[in-house]
Amino acid sequence: MPTPLRQFARDRAGRRCEYCHFSEANLPLWPFHLDHIVAKQHGGSDDASNVAWSCHRCNLRKGTNLSAVDPDTGQVVRLFHPRTDDWRDHFKASAGRITGLTETGRATAWLFEMNTDDRVYLRRVLKGTFE
């Protein structure tokens, strides 16, 4: 991926994962990646409107998925899209946990395993810098 696009996406995201909102500054040992929101194999492009800055764990869990199952309803729904969705419409951060407020938020948080014990603990430790 061209370096200028990587730097643009990184700066646009404020050096935070656009999915779980962990900051690069707080995770120096976790590599961050340029994620194709819609994977190239599904017709996605390298355009700035189709890339997101993502921590390693969110990128790994997302893979090429475009949808996931909402754990509350069992319905297959689209994943959160950082270019077209507002994070605050779909998620709420509280006490170290990220709660999905919509079917998209719940499905994304579930698929990305945003609330594993280690991630919740780290958010609680970093409370002043996360929320």
Task: Report what the structure shows.
- It is a single chain.
- Helix content is 33%, strand content 18%.
- The chain has one domain.
- The strands form 3 sheets. It has a two-stranded antiparallel ribbon with strand order 1-2.
- It has 131 residues and is α+β, with helices and mostly antiparallel strands.
- The chain is globular and about 35 Å long.
Rg, please?
14 Å
How many extended strands? 6
Stretches where pLDDT falls below 50 for ≥5 residues?
A: none
Label the structural class.
Answer: alpha+beta
Concise account of the structure shown:
The chain has helices at 3-12, 56-62, 87-90, 103-111, 117-125, 127-130; strands at residues 32-36, 51-55, 67-69, 76-78, 91-94, 97-100. With 131 residues, the chain is of the alpha+beta class.
Key features of this structure:
globular; alpha+beta; about 130 residues; two-stranded antiparallel sheet; two-stranded antiparallel ribbon
Helices, strands, pairings?
Layout: H1 3-12, E1 32-36, E2 51-55, H2 56-62, E3 67-69, E4 76-78, H3 87-90, E5 91-94, E6 97-100, H4 103-111, H5 117-125, H6 127-130
Antiparallel strand pairs: 1-2, 3-4, 5-6
